[in-house]
Design brief:
By secondary structure, the chain is of the alpha+beta class. The chain folds into 2 domains: 5-71 and 97-178 and 269-349, FAD/NAD(P)-binding domain (3-Layer(bba) Sandwich); 182-267 and 354-386, 2-Layer Sandwich (D-Amino Acid Oxidase, Chain A, domain 2). It is 38% helix and 29% strand. The protein has helices at 12-22, 36-41, 50-58, 63-68, 88-92, 102-115, 165-168, 236-246, 249-253, 298-319, 323-350, 358-373, 375-386, and strands spanning 5-8, 28-31, 47-48, 70-72, 75-79, 82-86, 97-99, 119-121, 125-130, 138-143, 146-151, 154-157, 175-190, 199-204, 207-215, 218-225, 260-274, 277-278, 281-283, 289-290. Strands 6-5-14-15-16-13-17-20 form an 8-stranded mixed β-sheet. It has a 6-stranded mixed β-sheet with strand order 8-2-1-12-19-18. The radius of gyration is 21 Å and the shape is globular. The chain binds adenosine-5-diphosphoribose (APR) and P-hydroxybenzoic acid. The site of adenosine-5-diphosphoribose has 28 residues, from helix 1 and helix 10.
Length: 390
């Protein structure tokens, strides 16, 4: 078969790209290794920048988010018992974020794809990319025991960190940059009322904690834990006790607890691959970069890649221009590195590092103290948190 754009991976990146291209008359196919249920079972962050919200509307997949998403105009940081309110909206001159889970975003995009009869192949096994140096790269895969071949004009790798696309890039042109943090996040989702109306980020002597939410009746909480922590050892009771111990008394006292409906441990990593394009293969989203979740930038960064990728491909087909394609990697990387910097900074500011020296501790305390007193510092934090412009 022949399509214009072959997309590998049906996470938020791949679904959003195929939807945006389809709406402009560009034909795509999405090849996904897993089942739709498996893709929807992955629980990830849920803070959307305005750029992502706008793209979802442009993709005609934003109606439920507009109804059910929670608009947040600030969040809180707690350090050494001091509470610091970051008034995002006031500090940025009106910008806010939308709290809406990535699972819901993915579901809405799946529904939007289905409504347009988008070509989506789940359980596509052993996807391979070949003829990369020609004008017609080829995708091959197996499904239900049969071999399939798709000839494309372009292949976009939206197949996440463990996908095949980045590995297919010629290894002599690919550069990778990485930092692995010496801890993980233990996350719990529960059908309980969020402890506060806004998100709370806590730097406590026992480690980082985050109080987040998915809706007015569903909470998401995280605790900094060892990177090799055994999930089995974390009963719900132990989780709630530990969370309470990291919160100020008045917040701990109002914490509503209940059975966890999901519990998992995620490692923290910063990673960037450069460049994001070679010939007719482009990388987007987690296939090209990972951020630690502290700034909630993972999904938003995937969205900015898709913004540049969709515009570049639309320009190619509608205006016969390769300019967007030529600038794709450069444009994405400028924004990626700023989000990498911000996520690294938030992570460094808010966690306890096992190997930290007394000097490191004092620097961290000074940084938080500065943030407390300086409008300029708060403004820089708020501007990055709501998302830099595309
Ligand atoms: N063939 C086909 N599909 C694959 C392959 C492969 N070889 N390898 C991986 N995939 C699929 C995965 O099963 C997954 O559904 O690619 C998809 C990648 O989706 P995500 O990992 O969600 O990545 P992305 O769409 O870029 O979304 C980025 O997800 O990980 C979070 O923090 C991240 O929020 C950000 C968002
Ligand atoms: C989440 O709700 O899962 C979440 C929110 C904010 C973050 C990270 C994760 O910074």
């Amino acid at each position: 078969m022949r399509v214009q754009v072959g997309i590998i991976g049906a996470g938020p990146s791949g679904l959003l790209l195929s939807q945006l291209l389809h709406l402009q008359g560009i034909e795509t196919i999405v090849l996904e290794r897993r089942t739709a249920d498996y893709v929807l079972g992955r629980i990830r962050a849920g803070v959307l920048e305005q750029g992502m919200v706008d793209l979802l509307h442009q993709a005609k997949a934003g109606d439920r988010m507009a109804r059910e998403g929670l608009i947040h105009d600030g969040f809180e940081i707690i350090f050494n018992g001091k509470r610091l309110h970051i008034d995002m909206k006031g500090l940025t001159g009106g910008d806010v974020v939308t709290v809406y889970g990535q699972t819901e975003v993915t579901k809405d995009l799946m529904d939007a794809r289905a409504a347009l009869d988008g070509q989506l192949v789940y359980e596509a096994e052993n996807v391979q990319i070949s003829d990369l140096d020609s004008d017609t790269p080829k995708l091959t895969y197996q499904k239900d025991g049969a071999e399939h071949e798709v000839i494309c004009d372009f292949v976009v790798g939206c197949d996440g960190y463990h996908g095949v696309s980045r590995r297919t890039m010629p290894q002599d042109i690919l550069r990778e940059f990485e930092r692995v943090y010496p801890f993980g996040w233990l996350g719990v989702l529960s059908e309980t009322k969020p402890v506060a109306e806004e998100l709370i980020y806590v730097n406590d002597k026992r480690g980082f904690a985050l109080c987040s939410m998915r809706s007015e009746t569903r909470s998401r909480y995280y605790l900094q834990c060892a990177f090799d922590e055994d999930l089995e050892e974390w009963t719900d009771d132990r989780f709630w006790d530990e969370l309470r111990s990291r919160l100020p008394d008045e917040t701990a006292a109002s914490l509503e607890t209940g059975p966890s409906i999901e519990k998992s441990i995620a490692p923290l990593r910063s990673f960037v691959a450069e460049p994001l394009r070679h010939g007719r293969l482009m990388l987007a989203g987690d296939a090209a970069h990972i951020v630690p979740p502290t700034g909630a930038k993972g999904l938003n960064l995937a969205a900015s890649d898709i913004y540049y990728a969709s515009n570049a491909l639309i320009e190619y087909y509608q205006d016969n221009s390769e300019q967007g394609l030529d600038n794709y990697s450069h444009n994405c990387l400028r924004r990626i590195w700023k989000a990498e910097r911000f996520s690294w900074w938030m992570t460094t500011l808010l966690h306890r590092f096992p190997d930290e020296s007394p000097f490191d501790r004092r620097i961290q305390a000074a940084e938080l103290d500065y943030l407390q007193d300086s409008q300029a510092a708060q403004k820089a934090l708020a501007e990055n948190y709501v998302g830099l412009p595309f």
